[in-house]
Automatic annotation (TrEMBL):
Coiled coil: none annotated. Residues 120-261 form the F-box associated beta-propeller type domain. It comes from the Eukaryota. Pfam families: FBA_1. This is F-box associated beta-propeller type 1 domain-containing protein.
Length: 292
């Protein structure tokens, strides 16, 4: 009885000899294949699922396909009174070709939507439906599958709290985490945080992080399972003070004070040669420098 068996788990006794390619040759072909082919090949057997989801395969596949296509994702939002819906457009940065992506049905009629981040082809969205509290959605654009992540109990986006979200992957795994940092009171320096793991499908209990932390910028950088934000002092985003980094493996924070001569105009974190970098214009507004 082969009902429910996966294709490659069934022994094909009558397969022609020329079909029996060495595994390493098949893997080499798949390195250069597009994600849709790789995704379908994962369903062939437990063996191929293990090979094609390994960190080594994902890393080499990314390297092989890095120069094949460069594209941008643009989020376009129209208020509901226009009669139009949210749109996400994929733009080829070389040719300018545009592809409208069909949004998951959960956000078709949402009042507000933010793209939290994109990692390994997975999109994390935060959206609001008709005055209800914010919801979190994980979306695979390739397969058009989506999953609603139950928000933590304190995720109410009230005016007295400042919330930031970030999406990151645990290195060498396919497990993603959503880091949620927030403040309960702007008058003290405590920053609280909690982390969702796709492995356990739960949020950790929120923990307080001390140290004169006023508010984090909404933009972040994710590298090797570490998420970094700019921490601003004061009531506005005009005074960058430090860079705060959270490690999902170490479950710990570290803080780097921004040098005094680099605080002027420091408002953007960048990837630079595998490191988190800070862009600022300490000398002139039209001359940016990098602090690594």
């Amino acid at each position: 009885n082969t009902k429910g068996a996966q294709i490659a788990d069934i022994e094909m006794l009558d397969a022609p000899a020329q079909w029996n390619l060495p595994d390493d040759l098949i893997v080499e072909i798949l390195y250069r294949s597009n994600p849709a082919i790789v995704g379908r090949s994962r369903a062939m057997s437990h063996k191929w699922k293990h090979i094609l989801t390994s960190f080594e395969f994902l890393q080499k596949s990314y390297t092989c396909n890095l120069e094949r296509q460069h594209s941008l994702l643009i989020h376009v939002f129209f208020p509901n009174w226009t009669g139009n819906m949210n749109s996400i457009i994929r733009v080829d940065s070389n040719k300018g070709n545009r592809l409208f992506c069909t949004l998951p049905p959960e956000v078709h009629d949402c009042q507000n939507m933010d793209i939290v981040g994109i990692e390994n082809g997975i999109v994390c969205l935060a959206y609001n439906m008709h005055g209800e509290s914010k919801q979190i959605l994980i979306w695979n654009m390739l397969t058009q599958s989506s999953k609603i992540i139950p928000p933590p109990d304190h995720f109410d986006y009230s005016t007295s709290r400042h919330h930031v979200l970030a999406l990151t992957y645990i290195p060498r795994t396919t497990t993603y985490c959503i880091v949620h940092a927030f403040k309960q009171n702007f008058d003290n320096g405590l920053l609280f945080y909690t982390v969702y793991s796709s492995a356990t499908e739960t949020w950790s209990e929120f923990v307080a992080l001390e140290g004169n932390l006023t508010r984090l910028g909404s933009e972040y950088i994710s590298i090797n399972g570490e998420v970094s934000w700019i921490n601003y002092s004061g009531d506005t985003y005009q005074s960058p003070e430090s860079v705060i980094t959270y490690s999902v493996l170490g479950k710990a924070w570290k803080r780097l004070i921004i040098p005094g001569n680099c605080k002027i105009g420091a408002s953007k974190l960048l990837h630079f040669e595998g490191k988190v970098s800070l862009a600022s214009y300490p000398t002139a507004k039209d001359q940016y420098g990098l602090v690594v």
